[in-house]
Amino acid sequence: MSNKLTDITISKARDGLEKGEFSAVELTKAHIEAMEKTKYMNAFITETPELALKQAEKSDKRIKEGKAGAMEGIPIGMKDLFCTKGVLTTAASHILDGFKPSYESTVSANLLESGAVMLGKTNLDEFAMGSTNHTSYYGSVESPWKKNNSDEKIVPGGSSGGSAAAVSAGVCMAATGTDTGGSIRQPASFTGLVGLKPTYGRCSRWGIVSFASSLDQAGPMTRSVRDAAIMLGAMAGFDEKDSTSASIPVPDFEAALKKDVRGLKVGIPKEYMADGLNTEISALWSKGAEWLKDAGAEIVNISLPHTKYGVPVYYIIAPAEASSNLARYDGVRYGLREEGASLDEMYANTRAAGFGAEVRRRILIGTYALSAGYYDAYYIKAQKVRKLIAEDFRKAYENVDVILTPTAPTPAFAFEDKSINDPVTLYLNDIFTIPTSLAGLPALSVPAGFSSDGLPLGLQIIGKHFDEETILRVGHTMENAAEFTAKPVGGVR
Questions:
Q1: Of 14, 88, 212, 356, whose Cβ has the fewest other Cβ atoms within 10 Å?
Q2: Is there a domain that residue 488 lies in?
Q3: 224 catalytically annotated
Q4: 145-159, pLDDT tens digit by residue?
Q5: Which of 136, 183, 224, 245 is catalytic?
Q6: How many domains does the chain have?
Q7: Which listed residue (114, 159, 204, 445) is catalytic?
Q8: pTM: predicted TM-score of the whole model, two decimal places
């Protein structure tokens, strides 16, 4: 029974719980067993099985009373960037050693209120800075996927790599992620999942450890588009504690899946057809467009001329905001503290010991970009180009309803791949996801095929501001056409 329960979707589990086919406790125990069998992945920093079982017992009670929430009894992973009351929260960094918040992030609180069961805190790149989940102080995460006829270890993507690996392997039914420049969508593509980055402001950022405040956005990582719609509905909503939270109604995202894509116009941006684009990914992109055309959508060629500036703009703005946000970690109030002969020396010692190499690199880049003499030349100029990138999208949406692109320019890397140690190569892996983040738009990655090595590949659907309903509709259609049902060899599903 346990393997069967770790293989179903949220929507099927919801139906099974309602009919009494199994209990929330049974569902949770099956996933706790799965967690024990997949320790090799290192997907969790902190496991909370006892807490999960207590939550599941309460879920069973609410189900019997007819008071079930949208995520009632569903075992999930919580990315260790979300503050969880009384549970260790590290952002995968040594500098937050021992930090147990006295409060709950708004998104995790919303999920718990909807009945979700938290199995634990998932691993990630330190402070969400990375594309491979190799920068975590708690060690790298290994994907449950393997190349054909190979035992070499594969990365799950990043920064939400722990969440991606856990959901893909069947350890949890869904997980939260955060996306600053592609950290939900890229790992979803690498592990055969659905990953949704909502519109900036759709989900509260309150209680999420900050990386880049004008870009960070929480979202769901699931095994189906329907599950993403269900989970987003539970996560989203206005929060007066977050000044960037949008005060707009949360629609019934699941209901949107009842509509088809006939009459929709799908944009194909020529700038994403870069020279040297992986031929398998290019072919899959063309196939995705054909699927939507066959379903009644119209394919329209468009231009997003400032796309080529997305990565350099991002790697000025995001590190600049990070250098400001991470200044709060000084060893005085919480987390790691390394003593020194003076206050300044204590600060320096704590940060040197507490921050990893990639985090230090981005802090230095950001501090440089914000320094006197360079602020106008770099940061202000980057913000101006960011507006041009957003304007490109605005103009495109005068003629199309959604935009279709690849999610990532490559399949997942092997642990031994030389590019893992090359920061610039890794930065460029977000070339297709970054422009969307800079514009604050919603985007959905849907598993659509495989590389010749047998690794998953995703396609990305980008929508208008606060139009997650349409990208979910399109994603649902693409999901049905792709018929992606493969499971990783290293999972328990």
A1: 88
A2: no
A3: no
A4: 999 989 999 999 999
A5: 183
A6: 2
A7: 159
A8: 0.96
